[in-house]
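Late entry, written up from scratch paper. The run itself happened at the end of the previous shift, but nothing got recorded in the book at the time, so transcribing now.
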Amino acid sequence: MNVEATLENLARKRDELVLQAHLFKAEAKDEWHRLEKSWHRFTQEVDRLAEATDDSDDNVRSFLRALAVDVEEGYNNLKESLKDPLP
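Output as recorded:
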């Protein structure tokens, strides 16, 4: 897992969603708040673990991968829910 590439990919997706924030439906706002907490936790853990460990450690990579998957799936689901339902 390339942590920098993952971080860049998630940051790009996050930025795209920020631009659409004014379109969020009421139910999407709750999901956005949950994802923001996950995003901040992910970035804090990346920073903390980068200082404390070697990123080649399998446990570290597995932990970061699980956090990244949660954030990415949430972003993808939220983005899908914001698509215009009209053809």
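Residues 3-81 form one domain.
(Scratch paper discarded after transcription.)
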